């Protein structure tokens, strides 16, 4: 997993902090946008210390991708964590939009961060077929498939549960499956 919290919002749930810290402790990489607000936020500083401890214990435990979003003075005890930051504070970037700055970050990180994405992680074989799967979808025409048939087909193809669940939540049956476009898949699923 790659940890990126774009919305620094305290959740209404009482366990939001523990969920957040648990995710941080398990992630393989973290993208950190450094700004004045970042260093004023106690939770962000706690996260930074956790990442620093993970790095001290083993450099291979987590990879940090720092992005200097606005001019800040980085505390000396944290400087190791922010070496090699992508700098978005230069005068030549001052008039760029947020989209253009985001493009710079993506361009600089895309190749390196790709190593940490789940899609690149080693394939884990799907769980053994459920007894509820009968293979009946194979004898039906695609447009006649039910929601269950689509789920069984996705399972049969080795599609991960997250994506199967997305199809189930969108109530994709055979008719809808046959009319899906690449654009619809990327926009809605």
Automatic annotation (TrEMBL):
Domain SAM: 145-189
InterPro entries according to UniProt: SAM, SAM/pointed_sf, Toll_tir_struct_dom_sf
UniProt-listed Gene3D superfamilies: Toll/interleukin-1 receptor homology (TIR) domain, Transcription Factor, Ets-1
Domain of life: Eukaryota
Protein name: SAM domain-containing protein
Lineage: Eukaryota, Metazoa, Chordata, Craniata, Vertebrata
């Amino acid at each position: 997993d790659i940890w990126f919290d774009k919305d620094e919002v305290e959740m209404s749930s009482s366990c939001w902090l523990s969920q957040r810290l648990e995710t941080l402790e398990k992630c393989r990489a973290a993208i950190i946008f450094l700004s004045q607000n970042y260093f004023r936020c106690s939770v962000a500083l706690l996260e930074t210390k956790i990442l620093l401890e993970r790095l001290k214990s083993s450099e291979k435990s987590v990879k940090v991708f720092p992005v200097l979003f606005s001019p800040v003075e980085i505390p000396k005890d944290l400087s190791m964590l922010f070496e090699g930051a992508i700098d978005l504070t230069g005068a030549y970037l001052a008039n760029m939009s947020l989209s253009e700055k985001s493009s710079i970050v993506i361009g600089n990180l895309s190749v390196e961060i790709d190593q940490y994405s789940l899609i690149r992680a080693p394939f884990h074989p799907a769980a053994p077929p459920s007894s509820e799967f009968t293979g009946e979808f194979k004898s039906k025409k695609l447009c006649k498939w039910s929601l269950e048939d689509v789920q069984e087909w996705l399972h049969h193809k080795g599609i991960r549960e997250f994506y199967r669940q997305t199809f189930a939540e969108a109530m994709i049956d055979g008719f809808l499956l046959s009319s899906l476009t690449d654009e619809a898949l990327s926009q809605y699923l």
